[in-house]
Amino acid sequence: MTLLPGVPDSVRLEEIDEPPLSDGSILVRTLALGICGTDHEILEGLHGSAPQHSQHLVLGHESLGVVETAPSGCGFSPGDVVVGIVRRPDPVPCPACAAGEWDMCRNDGYTERGIRGRHGFGAERFRIEPEFAVKIDPDLGIAGVLMEPASIVAKAWDHVERVALRSQAWSPRNLLVSGAGPIGLLAALMGRQRGLDVHILERTVAGPKPALIGELAAHHHASVGSLGDLRFDVVLECTAAPAIIVEAIKRCAPSGIVCLLGVTPSGLTSEFDIGGFNRKLVLGNEVVLGAVNANLSHYRQAADALARADKLFLERLITRRVPLDRWREAFEKRPGDIKVVLDFT
Ligand code: BGC
Known about the structure:
Layout: E1 2-3, E2 26-35, H1 37-43, E3 57-58, E4 62-69, E5 81-84, E6 87-88, H2 95-98, E7 111-113, E8 117-118, E9 125-128, E10 133-135, H3 147-164, E11 174-178, H4 182-193, E12 197-201, H5 208-215, E13 219-221, E14 232-237, H6 242-250, E15 252-260, H7 274-284, E16 287-290, H8 296-308, H9 311-317, E17 318-323, E18 339-343
């Protein structure tokens, strides 16, 4: 599955060479590939870059595969089910990358498989370095493809909880999640696992989203009005819609923490009361932070969250499984879609 970064609609399915050994010593046969908003942005030519000396980029960063061959003693054996870590540290490396926190890269020199300067996992076989492969419970089945998006959410929770340590009396009660896409629903799931009263702002009232919100025993708010005057200890903003970002900040309770997880294009201007924003944050000890990507510890936290989740719930997040010979359909946006997966089996 390749494309020319920067060229809209250039995605195609084509024969390419076997993955080079320089990609890593483990050879993986792909089982499934998740498609996300970032892939759509890359398809539209708005994001993404090819590796040096290549015009095309192999797409795909939400992987699930089975090890075909691995060097002995590397910690992986044929048959292991694995997911590939997306980001690679910058080559300098910066202090964060040097400490294994490539998700916090400080010089912008990182690469990302299937996104930025490195071929992705959207091929029948890919190679990966043992230190960037993560084993996952084979019992998860196809739901294992949710590991990468879950790692993003695990990082957001990790950072929210680190910020929360500034107060010894931190005892959050409720959570607002905006958007019931895969990231929002996984964020809500992890909120329920923490025993929080979870509210989800999601405009869709039909299809699988409301049912899944119900399965989490979360409150569904189809409009901002339905939130009344509720304020939240934690707000996880997963829509990347400017008006909802503003609402998410407004809904933060004193001492609360808002984490922004969606990526917006720049240039979306709207009126915003910066004085009121500053006043609210300062007088309320509130925090607004952004979070992207994930390091190995977050993949481990994600694996733990997925292992504790109801498997049927996870499977129902995957609303369409598209076989490889109908691959174009995987990139269509259809009503009711939550996670669309390209099935390589
Ligand atoms: C991926 C992240 C990546 C980000 C920015 C997201 O879709 O899940 O791993 O860091 O895009 O490229």
